[in-house]
Specification:
The protein is α+β, with helices and mostly antiparallel strands and 156 residues long. It has 5 helices and 6 strands.
């Protein structure tokens, strides 16, 4: 069963993120799926809401590519380490101050964000996911200023 769950994750990443077939989300997710950890936002609950949010996030990239670097499966859970890369096509997805930065950076081409997700799978569908991604690296790549630390080793 654990091998099948890992295959489900690979198929999900390829179908939804690489091929952009968001209408296929129901093949992978339970109707009452719950997703946690998306940038401090409240959890996304339910397939319909998840389809809307996935379309919004997927639409931010002109050429999204998700690569699964590794998976670890145990019982009904799969932990997976991934990268999501692409060219930002819709800066409207970004917070207002980040939108302006992204428009001002001519060399903005490819961005890549790494993350980890733990998925719970029951009856061949994902019922819950908790995701953490490297938001600081994403912000750095779109030109958000890096906080400066005091040079003398004191506290900021």
């Amino acid at each position: 069963m654990t091998h099948r769950n890992a295959e489900l994750i690979h198929d999900y990443a390829d179908t939804i993120w690489n091929k952009g077939q968001i209408d296929q989300l129901g093949r992978f997710m339970a109707p009452d799926v719950r997703m946690y950890g998306l940038g401090g936002e409240p959890p996304i609950i339910g397939l319909e809401k998840l389809q809307q949010e996935t379309a919004r996030w997927r639409g931010m990239y002109a050429d999204a590519t998700m690569t699964i670097l590794s998976t670890v499966s145990e019982d009904d859970r799969v932990a997976w380490h991934w990268t999501l890369g692409g060219t930002i096509a819709d800066t409207g997805m970004l917070m207002p101050n980040m939108r302006q930065l992204a428009r001002e950076i001519p060399q903005l081409a490819q961005i890549s964000v790494a993350g980890m997700t733990i998925s719970t799978v029951q009856d061949g569908k994902i019922t819950e996911e908790t995701t953490q991604s490297d938001v600081a690296e994403f912000l750095k790549q779109i030109g958000y200023p890096t906080p400066q630390m005091p040079q003398d080793g004191g506290h900021a």
